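Problem: given the chain below (86 residues), write out its structure.
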Amino acid sequence: MQRIYEPANLMEGEMLKGMLATEGIEAHLIGRDLVGGAGELPIFGLLWLSVDNDQAEYARELITAYNAALPLPGDEPESFPGTLVC
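Solution.
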């Protein structure tokens, strides 16, 4: 197992875990049960995604592509330019 990414929060971690699963990569979200201890534990470094060694490079590529993605033109409302509504 390799530690491949540190998500900003639990929601991002779960979303990335699901995205990797759709590509056939079994990811483990380590530290998800520690998030409830915020205030008594350090804020950063609690969460990370881990995958099998042979899938680590591909998983990193997918996460890098996800982080570099931009919304399609026309998907943002006129009243909130620069904001993607999901």
